[in-house]
Design a protein that fits this description.
Number of helices: 17
Number of domains: 3
Shape: elongated
Largest sheet: 7 strands, antiparallel
Radius of gyration: 25 Å
Bound molecules: zinc ion
Oligomer: single chain
Strand content: 15-25%
Structural class: alpha+beta
Strand order of the largest sheet: 10-11-12-16-15-14-13
C-alpha cells in the first residue's frame, strides 16, 4: 500500500513537471507532454494511420484539401506548427486529428460535403482540437481511439477471414471500442471548444462561420438517416458524432459558441466555394473501393479474391469488413458470407469438423460452377435450422450460411438460400478487370427533376433517393432546383 502511494506521488510530481501553457487560453494546463513529445507522438501515430487506412490516391484532391487546411492553420492559435492534411481511403464518414497537427478526413466524409466552406469547417474543427491540445490532454483516450481506428481501418481494407467466429468476435469488439472511444475521446466541452475555434478560423480565413453549424447538420442528418437504414437492416446505427444529442439548429450552446466568431468576419463578399469543391471532388470513389468487394444489383463481386455471388433481389446487402450480410425484405431471414478457413480435406470433411457434425453425414460434397462444395443442412445450438454451403475457391474455404428467425421463416427462404449458394462462382479475367467502384459525378438539374427520378437509374439501391438528398445536402425533403449542380453516383 505504502509503495503504491509513493509511486502515485511521484506521478503527481511528473504531472506538475509537464505543466504547459495552453496556446488557446494562455492558462497553465496539466499535460503529460512537452511540445517535442507531442510532435513525436503525432508523427508515430500518423505513420500508423497512413499504413492502416491508406492515403487516397487522388493528388489534385489531396492538394486542394491541404491548401484549404493550410489557409485555416495560418489563422489559428498555433500557426507555427507543421500541419499535414490528408484524405484517407475509407468510405467511413470520419475526420480526426492527431497530436502535433496531423489532420485526416476520409473520402467518405468528403462525399457528403457540398462546399469549400463546409470542408473548411471540418478541418477548422480538427485544427481546434490541435490548437487547444485536446488530444494531448486526453492522450490516453485518443490513443485508444487511434489504435482501434487503425485496426478498424485495416479490417475495412480487407475481406477479413472469419476464423471460427473467434477472430471475428475479436474484431467486432475492437470495432465496438472504436465507436465508444471516439465517442468519449473528447467530451462535450472539448467538442464545443473545437467548434468555437473552428468557427473563428473560418471567419478569419474569409469563410462564413455558420458553415460550422451547417456541417454539423450534415453529420446529424447522416446519423438520422442511418438510424432509418439500420432499422431496415436490423442492425445498430453508426454514430458518427454521438455527442450531438439534439439537431444543431436547436442547440443553443453551439449557436452561441459559433456566434462568437462574428467579430472575426472579414469585410467583403463571402463565397462558400461550392463550385470549387464540387470540381475537386468529382471522380472521387464513393463507398467501397474495388479491393474491398463491391455490391451491385445484389451481386457481390470481389476483385482480389476473384469471386462473385448473387443474393435474392430485394434482400438488403451489407458489405462489412469481415463478412457480407444479406437480410430478407421482411427481416425474418439472414445469410452471411465469410472466409471460413483454409482448404483442408474435402469441403464435407471440413464442414463436419467445423460444425461438429456426426458421421451420419449431414454434409454432402458436390461440384458447383466447377468449384468443390459441401451443402450442410443442420440446426444451430438453439435448435434453429440452417443451410450452409462450404465452397472451395483458390485454396480458400468460403462459408455461406442462411437461417430464419423461426423454422417457418427458414422454410420460406430455404430455396433462396440454396440459390445464393449455387450462384457462387469464380470471376473470369475479363469480369475481374471490369469491376469498378462507384464514383461521384455531377449534372446540372433541369426544370422539374426530382431525386425520385434520379434514384431510378442510380446504383445506390433501395435507399437511393435519400442517399442522393444526403449527398446534396437536401435531406430529408429537398428537391433539385433548376440550374443547380447535383452530385450523382455512377
Ligand atoms: Zn471533434
Amino acid at each position: 500500500m505504502a509503495a503504491f502511494q509513493f509511486i502515485a506521488a511521484l506521478g503527481c510530481v511528473y504531472l506538475l513537471g509537464g505543466c504547459a501553457v495552453n496556446p488557446v487560453t494562455g492558462s497553465q494546463n496539466f499535460t503529460l507532454m512537452s511540445e517535442a513529445d507531442e510532435m513525436r507522438k503525432g508523427r508515430d501515430a500518423a505513420a500508423e494511420v497512413s499504413k492502416a487506412y491508406g492515403v487516397y490516391n487522388f493528388p489534385t484532391l489531396q492538394n486542394y484539401v491541404n491548401e484549404v487546411g493550410q489557409k485555416l492553420a495560418k489563422e489559428s492559435h498555433r500557426p507555427e506548427l507543421d500541419y499535414h492534411f490528408t484524405v484517407v481511403d475509407s468510405p467511413q464518414v470520419n475526420a480526426f486529428a492527431l497530436p502535433g497537427g496531423y489532420i485526416y478526413v476520409t473520402r467518405g466524409i468528403l462525399a457528403y460535403l457540398n462546399s469549400e466552406a463546409e470542408l473548411a469547417a471540418v478541418l477548422g474543427h480538427e485544427i481546434g482540437h490541435v490548437t487547444a491540445r485536446h488530444s494531448v490532454q486526453q492522450y490516453s483516450a485518443a490513443t485508444a481511439a487511434n489504435v482501434a481506428a487503425t485496426i478498424g481501418g485495416l479490417v475495412a481494407g480487407i475481406f477479413m477471414p472469419q476464423m471460427g467466429g473467434q477472430v471475428a468476435q475479436g474484431v467486432q469488439s475492437l470495432l465496438g471500442i472504436t465507436g465508444s472511444a471516439l465517442l468519449s475521446g473528447y467530451g462535450r466541452s472539448h467538442e464545443l471548444e473545437a467548434d468555437r475555434l473552428g468557427a473563428e478560423y473560418l471567419a478569419r480565413s474569409g469563410y462564413d462561420p455558420q458553415a460550422m453549424i451547417k456541417v454539423i447538420g450534415v453529420l446529424k442528418n447522416q446519423e438520422l438517416f442511418d438510424i432509418e437504414v439500420a432499422k431496415q437492416e436490423g442492425r445498430e446505427p453508426h454514430r458518427y458524432h454521438g455527442i450531438f444529442a439534439t439537431h444543431p439548429d436547436n442547440d443553443t450552446r453551439l449557436q452561441e459558441v459559433v456566434g462568437e466568431a462574428k467579430q472575426y468576419v472579414q469585410p467583403g463578399a463571402v463565397d462558400d466555394g461550392r463550385k470549387e469543391f464540387l470540381r475537386h471532388t468529382k471522380g472521387m470513389i464513393f463507398g467501397d473501393s474495388a479491393d474491398q468487394g463491391i455490391v451491385r444489383d445484389n451481386t457481390f463481386q470481389h476483385k482480389e479474391l476473384r469471386f462473385t455471388l448473387s443474393f435474392p433481389p430485394e434482400w438488403r446487402i451489407r458489405n462489412k469488413p469481415d463478412e457480407v450480410v444479406a437480410i430478407s425484405p421482411d427481416g425474418d431471414a439472414l445469410m452471411v458470407l465469410s472466409l471460413f478457413d483454409s482448404v483442408r480435406g474435402s469441403p464435407a470433411d471440413l464442414a463436419r469438423e467445423r460444425f461438429r457434425l456426426g458421421l451420419s453425414s449431414e454434409a454432402s460434397s458436390t461440384t458447383n460452377n466447377g468449384l468443390p462444395v459441401a451443402i450442410v443442412t443442420s440446426t444451430t445450438q438453439e435448435g434453429m435450422p440452417f443451410k450452409a454451403g462450404v465452397i472451395y475457391h483458390d485454396n480458400k474455404a468460403y462459408l455461406l450460411a442462411g437461417r430464419g428467425d423461426s423454422p417457418a421463416a427458414f422454410d420460406r427462404h430455404r430455396s433462396a438460400i440454396s440459390s445464393a449458394i449455387e450462384s457462387f462462382r469464380a470471376l473470369s479475367d475479363t469480369e475481374k478487370e471490369s469491376i469498378k467502384a462507384l464514383e461521384i459525378g455531377t449534372i446540372t438539374a433541369t426544370k422539374g427533376l426530382s431525386y425520385a427520378e434520379l434514384a431510378r437509374t442510380s446504383p445506390l439501391g433501395v435507399n437511393a433517393e435519400n442517399y442522393l438528398r444526403l449527398l446534396n445536402g437536401q435531406y430529408p425533403e429537398g428537391e433539385p432546383v433548376s440550374g443547380q449542380i447535383i452530385k450523382i453516383i455512377r
